Automatic annotation (TrEMBL):
Residues 4-107 form the HIT domain. This is HIT family protein. GO terms for molecular function: catalytic activity. GO terms for biological process: nucleotide metabolic process. InterPro entries: Histidine_triad_HIT, HIT-like, HIT-like_sf. The active site is at H93 (tele-amp-histidine intermediate). A motif (Histidine triad motif) lies at residues 91-95. It comes from Candidatus Enterocola intestinipullorum.
Length: 130
């Protein structure tokens, strides 16, 4: 059965898309730690990120870099942090999180509740910065 993230890529489940190329897809995390929290995934369905081939892992990181630079332009911050957990969704993903402090990377923090309009605005600001 397809993962929830493959269903998002296929358009079967809605998302707030940030960017896409032939191999990778970026969209807003639905339970963001901060505004601009974005997920980057390979379209290839792989659970563990370190099971990707060397070439695909490198290409995913280059794609994530473009998205991260755009997040930093759209949401001024000290740096955009990157994290890989993958304990909840069995489809490899990189979290990109604009940080004002180390505390912004604590996954145990309460998540933001944003309206659809806010999500739409955030996604378009990042897309426009790409
Ligand atoms: P992890 O697997 O890295 O522990 O966490 C998975 C992340 O995916 C979480 O931050 C969660 O909010 C996000 N997530 C889970 N399901 C969905 C979904 O259906 N749509 C979006 N946009 N994000 C999701």
């Amino acid at each position: 059965m397809a993962t929830i993230f493959s269903r998002i890529v296929a358009g079967e489940i809605p998302c707030y898309k940030v960017a896409e190329d032939d191999k990778f897809f970026a969209f807003l995390d639905i339970n963001p730690m901060v505004k601009g929290h974005t997920l980057v995934i390979p379209k290839q369905e792989v659970d563990y990120i370190f099971d990707l081939s060397d070439n695909d892992l490198a290409a995913m990181q280059v794609f994530a870099k473009k998205v991260a630079l755009a997040i930093g332009k759209a949401f001024p911050c000290k740096k955009v942090g990157q994290a890989v957990l993958g304990l909840e969704v069995p489809h490899a993903h990189i979290h990109l999180i604009p940080m004002q402090s180390e505390a912004d990377m604590l996954f145990s923090n309460p998540k933001l509740k944003l309206s659809p309009d806010e999500f739409t605005e955030i996604a378009s600001k990042i897309s426009a910065a790409m």
